[in-house]
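Make up an example, fold above all:
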Amino acid sequence: MPKIASGEKIQLIAEGEITGEDSLYSERTGKRKFGTSTYKVYGALAGLQEEEEAVKPYLLVWLHGMDNGIELGHLTTIQKRLRHRVIFVVPMCPQTHKGTQFNWGCAFRARDDKKQLGFVHGKLHEGYLMALTSKISDLAYEFDAERVLVMGYSMGGFGAFQLGGFAPDAFDVVMSVAGYGLGTLEPEDAMYGAPQPASSEIFEEFLTGIASELSRVPIVLAVHAQKDSMSSFRDVKAIIKSCKETQAKRGVLHTAELLEVEDRWADSDRNRKKRRISGHHYFNFSLLDESSEDFLWSKLRKYLSQAPLRLELRPLHIARVGEEPRVGFKCPRCNGPRYMGPDEFSTKAKNLHYRYK
């Protein structure tokens, strides 16, 4: 396992490229079929005592928005807010591949992105989601991570919902800040100008097939401002509501919560030249500034202290949206993946093949 040099606050410890080589998708097609997607792995342990540096780390996946990155200082601040040793995995969204563009696992052609509606007309790309979640799970196994978290802002928040719904058993926390879903409930004459009722039908399918799977993640948090005119508060509220309703039906005691940013903070980010007043600029308020402690981090630390540990499994495959849910896992005691529905998985996870950490 790579180690962080003594005295370093944050350090690059690995980098690579997301490939489909180990995925069932590649085995079926023989092709990757998504653009180049690199990643970097950083270790951070700022502000910790010596005994705290030796504990099992959290593995936190940060998904960028349209700005294509995050400052290392911001990662250090997030690690300090968590008050825990953190391994950060910072992938880059796939580049355009043979005319197909990507908003993380949402793939679309240029003709589908008119008025920036790729998130409405696009499709979830099983191959990329599978390859990325497989890499995340491999890294969590390599670093013996105590918890696995995925977070993102704006488009990254959309990606966090995608990953959490695609492979819910791989994550302890899914957190979307200023994110959105596939499709939208917003009226055609408001916000996006997305065609209705088609966009609502796409969104409802997203809720049924992906968002409801989020209920299996122990902690699902959404941070959003009603004033946000670039990402729909209405849609995110519906995602969290769907998650809660599915949790109640399944009788699971998980956390799904929408943390609402007040209007006065919705455009509070600093250092923006010619900043557009859009209600979409609350990155610092919700994640970095002192305000974030009471607003977000104290709550998340509490939830993490109470949530059950995830299964020590590495996901390989989940069925496409609309199919019967089916997850495959690589088992350390047997050869190859096994497949089962979520109910069977919950029951059989305690047998000789599957164990809790």
Notes: The first strand starts at residue 10 and ends at 17. The chain is about 30% helix and 20% strand. The radius of gyration is 19 Å.
